Structure to design on (625 residues):
């Protein structure tokens, strides 16, 4: 399976993966998160597990289940870690632990290496059996609401190591902290090459006009993604350049606020025929791929962001991306080289106009963006880093490891 | 029998030290405290990144972009890590430059929240990439083909490993191919003034020139 990436991923990444597979082959590697669909974590795990298995690693992916109360609480925890002031009571933390205790009884946690994704399954570490346990934090915790951060910390510190997506999310914690950015799969339905027919079929079916440049933002309907700010930017641009705005997102089962935000966005769009709000069902990967390929400019105007993988997705399709300078977005967008970083609605509007008026700049930026993603943000690099972190934890104390 | 050259590559896995500096006073304190691995990462390994030669290490980059202390950024950028025999000598120079600047401007500005300097370090994984060459023509093919991480390992990282400012490529060319002139020309390429892709291009140019010279040694009879 890894051979499919020959000629796409950097050679060195593929070679190191083979070396790591030789030393870790046959051993068990468990990933646990809280949703099988929607959001970047589920998406990358769907692709990563078969590749790991193809490398000879006994990889498994388990999903914890919980009730509405559990997911409402974990959403609050998520928002609090991103800086919102939230009230999470002792009773809620107790319920959080209880749901994890029930899940621990149903999931086989016996593995040589275990990666627990995000806060929802965090307490599973209390039921560790053996092996290296790593907590994988995908959230921007650079400025968290302290009470919630401290309460979660009691679990985080029980892990052997933590993985953050960006250095600035890491804290002084006295345990090993790896910095591993997430990635996209160039061969997935969401990122593979599409024919012109496939792209125009999607445009026709979703009612997106092809006669004007398309400005696109793909993200969950979440206030931290600033969908209203995107509409305001579009309105500023529209005074000068005729264009179409597409806001596309899928619902996630662990995000109860999505419906409310979607209604706000629809109301704010006020029936503008050139604003297309698309609530795509889960697994609409090919449609998202087509939308990104038909776009002229892609936005990710987030106010808070874990990493913002939609940025790398659009860059891989050779598109210039305008992104908020938050979370992992500045790691992907080198300002003025592989895209533009913006700090305001006005900034986003200005850069959209600049690109619409200089298509040759948009093309050159898009080309550089694609090469940047090839070197830094493909799934093979992330698997390489996960296996390396596991191997490093089993060979602690060495700063150089030679194969 | 000529000993072949085996290409290797290194890949660095990033770890956070959990330490961060929001102004120059804290930066100086932490530069004095952090591990050699961390200093190595923020200076020598800067050359592993694709960068424009605006800055030559992470400290200069941060001083220029986040603190907008342009003069300090220039002074830090002028520190060539390959001039120093050890990381501890390099650390002393960094401390001296930052210290002198603080004496002249004792109230430096604070970085914006989230834009502090984050001290990282790396674990380096080294592996052969399955390419062994026996002569200069094969070497030329290989140097054009390998990942930038392989150029970094043999041209930059080797200087600290081999010592004396000598890279793996020129060492092999001199010792195994007995081409002292070419080895010297490769050693004359300044590692500090280029990124890995520039280095790849310059080495390939020198080898092509050498091969052309070897080929034309017989000349064409009139």
């Amino acid at each position: 399976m890894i051979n499919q990436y020959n000629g796409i991923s950097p050679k060195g990444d593929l070679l190191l993966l083979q070396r790591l597979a030789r030393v870790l082959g046959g051993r068990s590697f468990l990933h646990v998160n809280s949703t099988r669909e929607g959001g970047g974590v589920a998406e990358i795990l769907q692709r990563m597990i078969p590749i790991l298995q193809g490398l000879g690693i006994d990889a498994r992916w388990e999903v914890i289940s919980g009730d509405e109360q559990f997911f409402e609480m974990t959403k609050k925890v998520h928002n609090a870690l991103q800086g919102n002031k939230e009230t999470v009571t002792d009773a809620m933390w107790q319920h959080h632990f209880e749901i994890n205790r029930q899940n621990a009884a149903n999931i086989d946690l016996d593995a040589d290496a275990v990666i627990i994704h995000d806060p929802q399954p965090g307490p599973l570490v209390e039921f560790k059996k053996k092996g290296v346990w790593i907590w994988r934090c995908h959230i921007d915790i650079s400025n968290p609401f302290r009470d919630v951060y401290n309460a979660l910390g009691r679990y985080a510190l029980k892990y052997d190591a933590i993985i953050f997506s960006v250095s600035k999310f890491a804290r002084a914690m006295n345990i090993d902290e790896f910095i591993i950015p997430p990635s996209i799969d160039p061969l997935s339905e969401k990122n593979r090459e599409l024919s012109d027919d496939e792209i125009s079929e999607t445009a026709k079916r979703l009612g997106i006009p092809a006669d004007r440049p398309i400005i696109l933002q793909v993200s969950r309907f979440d206030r931290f993604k600033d969908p209203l700010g995107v509409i305001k930017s579009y309105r500023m641009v529209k005074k000068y350049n005729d264009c179409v705005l597409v806001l596309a997102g899928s619902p996630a089962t662990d995000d109860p606020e999505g419906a409310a935000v979607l209604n706000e966005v629809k109301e704010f769009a006020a029936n503008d025929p050139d604003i297309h709000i698309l609530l795509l069902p889960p697994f609409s990967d090919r449609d998202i791929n087509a939308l990104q390929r038909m776009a002229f400019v892609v936005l990710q105007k987030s106010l808070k962001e874990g990493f913002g993988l939609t940025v790398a997705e659009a860059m891989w399709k050779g598109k210039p991306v305008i992104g908020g300078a938050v979370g992992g977005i500045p790691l992907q967008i080198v300002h003025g080289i592989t895209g533009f970083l913006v700090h305001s609605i006005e900034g986003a509007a200005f850069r959209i106009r600049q690109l619409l008026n200089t298509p040759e700049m948009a093309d050159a930026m898009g080309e550089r963006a694609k090469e940047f993603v090839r070197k830094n943000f493909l799934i093979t690099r992330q698997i390489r880093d996960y296996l390396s972190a596991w191997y490093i934890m089993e060979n602690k104390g060495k700063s150089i490891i030679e194969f | 029998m000529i000993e072949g050259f085996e290409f290797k590559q290194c890949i660095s896995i990033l770890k956070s030290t959990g330490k961060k500096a929001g102004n120059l006073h804290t930066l100086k304190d932490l530069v004095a405290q952090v591990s050699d691995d961390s200093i190595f990462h923020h200076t020598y390994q800067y050359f592993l990144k694709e960068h424009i030669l605006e800055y030559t290490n992470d400290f200069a980059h941060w001083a220029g972009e986040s603190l907008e202390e342009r003069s300090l950024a220039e002074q830090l950028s002028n520190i060539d890590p390959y001039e120093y025999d050890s990381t501890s000598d390099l650390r002393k120079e960094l401390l001296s430059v930052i210290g002198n600047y603080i004496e002249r401007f004792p109230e430096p500005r604070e970085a914006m929240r989230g834009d502090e300097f984050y001290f990282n370090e790396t674990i380096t994984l080294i592996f052969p990439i399955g390419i062994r060459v026996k002569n200069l023509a094969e070497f030329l093919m290989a140097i054009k083909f390998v990942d930038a991480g392989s150029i970094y390992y043999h041209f930059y990282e080797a200087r600290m490993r081999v010592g004396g400012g000598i890279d793996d490529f020129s060492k092999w060319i001199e010792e195994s191919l007995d081409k002292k002139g070419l080895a010297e020309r490769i050693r004359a390429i300044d590692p500090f003034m280029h990124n890995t892709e520039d280095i790849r291009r310059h080495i390939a140019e020198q080898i092509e020139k050498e091969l052309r010279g070897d080929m034309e040694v017989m000349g064409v009879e009139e």
